[in-house]
Structures are given as structure tokens and as C-alpha cells.
Amino acid sequence: MKVCLMQMDQRTRDSMSLVLKHRTDNAVVLADEESADVAVMDLDHENSLQAYQSMRARRPAFRAIGLTSRGDLVHEGIEIIQKPISAGRLLEAILRISQGAVRIPGIKAAGAASSLSARIGSSRRRPETTAASQGQMSFDPASYLLGTILEAAAEAERRDAVAIVSFYGDRVILLDKTENLIKTNLTSSQARAFSLTAIDADDVGGLASTVGLQRPAVEYMERDQAKFRYAGRTYDVPMETFMWKLGAMTSRGRLPLGLGAADRVYLRRWPNLTGFSYTDNDMRIIAYWIRQAASLREIAEALGVSEQEVFSVYSAAHAAGLAGKACREADGLWEAPAVEEHRQRGLLSSIMRRLVQRKPMEAAA
Fold first, then answer.
1. CATH architecture for residues 258-338
2. Which of 39, 212, 315, 316 would bridge with 244, disulfide CB 3.0–4.6 Å?
3. Alpha-carbon gap, residue 230 to 171, rounded angstroms
4. Domains of the chain: which residue ranges?
5. 145 near 250, Cβ under 8 Å?
6. For 131-177, what is each residue's pLDDT tens digit?
7. Which residues contact 296 (CB under 8 A, 6 or more apart)?
């Protein structure tokens, strides 16, 4: 089968070329638009649909595989794949569109219609230990969307502005620490999928296993300008909730670079757990950790849970700004905030105050 790549930036084109070259054993080859049987195109590019319709007008039997971050996009003659995509899902789509005419080693037609939602699984979070179980115990946040957001949030706070992180067409994340809110148009499934996708294409053994998220664009603007530009296009999520989820999903049971399992870490305060799902072990880890600073290995041993579960909770707390490496013995103690005395006293409070003031006088007498 001959495949052409349309409406793609060069990095994505190179990644896909590598996948087709090494994964199909020459059953699929690259060709120009006029001789190709199938097109693979990025539907988030502005002119992609017009280019496809122009091709279809000349060749009515022409089919296409469309890559998009828009979950509701449907178009006749186009096999839709939700971004971010893996090499396996791309090859499965080629199998489906060829109706069995192409045989690709290692890819079975049965079950080829697995979707992104099926790959993601249920909404109740389970410990994700796949990466750690393969010996990858740490990850670099800068290689994922998480790192871009953390860096953008810090810079936005320094500038006293709103950071806008844009990627994959019209997907946006607005960060404003003064309001402690994230504004975004990501769906839950998209947020999960993008959190797991490296910015650059994964390359294992010389083969690209995923098409990378690519480096998001970041800009900074005044709050009124950002509010006007994105009015009605986003919804609000508490920043702590969004970052906790993003940190946990990116972690997959790994630790951020620069931290070891034996390092003492603190938890600044109890997180707000009402905004996301959590496991029973997550709650036990937080309850133990909130008492005092401790190493992640110590927490795992004390509770009889896997280190990967503890690493995931730490990564989530760190992303939410609630955790870090302890430098002092006091780090990690849950200190109750000072409560300012109310100026207008109630009747009972006034009586108690008078009794306390009179007690020394009576004792002296």
C-alpha cells in the first residue's frame, strides 16, 4: 500500500516516516499525493480538510486517516484517530482502511479498533507502575507537558501575567496563580493522554513508538486580554486539582529527576482530595506523610505498599506545589494557620474574658 503524508510539520512527518519504514516490512511505502492509496493528514492544520476535499474531487475512491485533538470530529471518507497517537494505533488504522489487503508483521486485525478511551481505561485511578517495573525509576518533567506548565506558571507569577500554553491545534491551558485556576478546553481523556505523551517522539531501539506531543507554544498576556480572548472557550479547574492529576498521570510510578527514594521529603499540607479520584493506599500514604518529613522508601516500608505508589503520590504533590525535599527537621509538619481574633466578641466570649481577668485579682485578695 502507498501512503502519503499531508498537512504535517516536518518533525511529525519524520517520525511517521520512521514508523512506516521500520514497522511494516515494506508492506506500506511512502508516495506522493497523486499515486498514494491512502493519505495520513493532520486535521488540526488550517487547510487540511480543503486539501483532502480537493484530492477527493479528483479521485473519489481516495481515503484518508486523520489525526486530530478534537474528540467530536467526524468526516466522510476519513478514518479519525484521536491525538496523541502511537505507532500501533496508526498501523491498526491502516489495516482497517485497507480492509485486510495489507499484512503488517506484529499487528493483528482482530481488536484493531481499540480507541483512545479503551486504552485509557476507567476513570477510577489505579497505580500505574508499568514504566517503573521496566526499570525506568525516574522521569524528566521537561520532557512532558508537566514541565512546560510548571515553567510557564513560575514565569507567569514572576511577570504577574497569565501564561497561555498552546499545542495540537486549538488545545490551550491558561495559568494564573493569583486566581489559583487553570482554564482549559481539554477533555479529561485528552488531559490524560497528553500527560503520558513525551514532547519528542519516543525512540526505543531506533523505532519511534509514539508520535511526540512536540514543544507547546507559551505566551504571556495581561489578565483582561486573556479573559477577553478566551471567553466562552475554556472552563475553570482549581490549579491544585489539575496539577495533582497531571503530576500523578505523568509519573506512572516514577520520580522526578533529582530526587531519590532515600531523600527526606515534606508534605506542606493535606491536599484537597474532593476534586479527583484516589486509591485507599493514596489516602494511607498522605495520612502517614503529613505527620512529618520522611523518605519515600520509609513510607513504603512502613505502610507495606509499593514504592511506585508512593512515587506517584509524591509526583502529584510536587506538581501541585505541596511537596519538596526536606532541608530542616520542621519541614513537612502540618502547621495550623494563625487565626486572627475577631473584633466583635460574642456574649460567651466576653464573659470568659472577664472571668480570666478577675481570677488573678481574687487570688491576690
1. Orthogonal Bundle (1.10)
2. 316
3. 12
4. 2-116, 138-252, 258-338
5. yes
6. 444 446 888 888 888 988 999 999 998 999 999 998 877 788 999 88
7. 255, 261, 263, 265, 307, 310, 311, 314
Q: Mind spelling out the 3-state secondary structure of the chain?
A: CEEEEECCCHHHHHHHHHHHHHHCCCCCEECCCCCCCEEEEECCCCCHHHHHHHHHHHCCCCEEEEEECCCCCCCCCEEEEECCCEHHHHHHHHHHHHCCCCCCCCCCCCCCCCCHHHHHCCCCCCCCCHHHHCCCCEECHHHCHHHHHHHHHHHHHHHCCEEEEEECCCEEEEEECCCCEEEECCCHHHHHHHHHCCCCCCEECCEECECCCCCCEEEEECHHHHHHHCCCCCEEEEHHHHHHHHHHHHHCCCEECCCCCCCEEEECCCCCHHHCCCCHHHHHHHHHHCCCCEEHHHHHHHHCCCHHHHHHHHHHHHHCCCEEECCCCCCCCCCCCCCCCCCCCCHHHHHHHHHHHHHHHHHHC
pTM for the full model? 0.55
Rounded distance between C-alpha atoms, residue 149 and residue 247, angstroms: 11
pLDDT at 122: 35
Which single residue is written with the C-alpha cell 486509591?
279
Cell, residue 30:
511512502
Is 2-116 CATH 3.40.228.10? no
